[in-house]
């Protein structure tokens, strides 16, 4: 499973990797959770997946020209209320007909601009949907402004604050926009395979339970964030508690050479670092004391890359087992933990908050 997820995450990150790797954005790797099937049925899509159905009957468009509206798809109304006095049926027919003609003209202008896919962030009126169907325009409703922004980033479209015909530079493109049913869930996919590298990639996760889907999503997010850190610093250290134990051993040696009260603080810091290998051994069901002692002995013999072996009691070389931690993550966690401890030690006075109002629960009745 680890190798399968690693392959998905690495391919997704490489697809959206910019020319300057330090500008890598983790938000461009999206995750779509769809219940059903097995974990190994998950796949990577070179584009964006929207877990919604289209509004009309058009479900597939090739060579899509996309316009994105950040407002409702309807004719603009006046800000003040007004009354219209209609005296006959002909006046009623003419009034509704003029509204239909205005909507038809507006939708026709959008069609003449080459648009065949319309994405709306707000509501879509029935009349606008009717004429969009007549002019063979696919209509998709996307309430989330963040998802609309990602669609714009993928297709190159511009989110418009008005309903009307877009300019040529405001129209986005995609190779295919289609509604596919995945595990009983209708999903709208925006695919752009013609580009060598797209700006958005989506990992579609499949599983039988929602809890496992959430666990898989967290694993993917962790992998993408590690890739982000790798673009800044590609150095790794041995995992499995090997790094923490090596630092603890070095600090204990330093404490022996340090005179005064500072040696006790250094020794306590070393004991705090032992928490990581002790916790790993405890979670693996091993005897923490003997396991940590064996790990100290292995490091004393020069096996500095040895860590806790969670598969069977003992230690093993973490680099050979490909168990590593990122250096930046390890360094930042130590820095933040040290700063938190120093902040607490700097507090001279603690103000205790008393319970406000209400009777005293310890007071006897009648007192």
Structure description:
Helix 1 (2-15) packs across helix 5, helix 6 (242-257) runs antiparallel to helix 7 and helix 8 packs across helix 9 (288-300). The protein contains ten helices and 14 strands. Strands 3, 4, 5, 6, 7, 8 and 9 form a seven-stranded mixed β-sheet that branches. Strands 1-10-2 form a three-stranded mixed β-sheet, with helices on one face. The protein has a two-stranded antiparallel ribbon with strand order 11-14. It is elongated and about 100 Å long. With 367 residues, the protein is of the alpha/beta class. The relative contact order is 0.14. The mean pLDDT is 84. The chain is 41% helix and 19% strand. Helix 2 (89-112) links the parallel strand 4 and strand 5. It has helices at 2-15, 89-112, 126-134, 145-155, 210-232, 242-257, 262-273, 275-283, 288-300, 327-346; strands at 29-35, 43-45, 47-50, 60-69, 117-120, 138-141, 159-160, 172-182, 185-191, 201-207, 236-238, 306-308, 315-317, 324-326.
